[in-house]
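Changelog-adjacent note: as of this version, every example in the card shows the full chain rather than a window. The one below runs 316 residues end to end.
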Amino acid sequence: MIKVGVIMGGVSSEYEVSLNTGREMLKHLDRSKYEGVPVVIHSREELIEGVKGLDFALLALHGAYGEDGTVQGTLETLGIPYSGSGVLASSLCMDKHLTKTVLASKGVHTPAWLCLDRMEDLSLDAVERLGYPVMVKPNSGGSSIGMTKVNSSAELRSAVEKAFAVDRSVLIEGYTVGEEITCPILGGTLLPIIGIRSLGADWFDYNAKYELGGAEERVIQLPAGLEDRVRAAALACYQALRCTVYARVDMLVKDGVPYVLEVNTLPGMTETSLLPRSALAAGYTFSGLLDEIISGSLGERRGTVAQEKQGVISYG
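Full-length structure tokens:
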């Protein structure tokens, strides 16, 4: 039996979201195949101690020191296989500015943006050129924490300060009015697309994401031509950013064009989260989805080790 440690908690503002993901994973692990072990961490030292004796690390972490490649690098150093994408993809996708830079270079549409490394970099003229409203968000954050929709220059500075309070860099992004969708990918294959509509708020904020009745999320069927464009954009993101095993690509569709907002390498995995809901529509139970993630990750890690032994270094 494989001893699987479900790594949850972490040091980011998404601590509680991570705990919810971890509990659901433990609940649905196939007990005929796996011995599930909860590993709640608050620091690197706790991670190193907590993973001793594990055969596999199933990552339920979100945010900094979880999705950004640092945990993945630590686990590789310790020789413990882990779930999802490798160090490079995790680091790239955690940084929205780098993600958008790579995607734009590949011809993938993404809303225009500015990235600030300090408050002094804020230029009202540059934001004016983006055009109001704009979305101000932590460059490396998630779950819409620290994120604000800004309708005028009078609201801008306080929104940027709010984002800087939770991150070292801040993204200011042109607000795109369109249909919000998310595209889960498993093993390089696009799963059913989910449409998202916030109920109450005019954008998909933290409450819409996590409060009961905050949003309507359902599997949708797009027109054939649009679905082809969305599929192509989602898979282009997955490949360009070197993602492996699974990921979720968030988009807005405007006038038949998909605009990519971000790519999540460790998306939420509660039973009602978007990826498990999409996987269920594709015929996967929650336990079956975890099986796919674990087996795909073990194959990916074995492949990486084999390449390294041959002198071909892969950080996929």
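Structural remarks: Residues 286-309 form the longest helix (24 residues).
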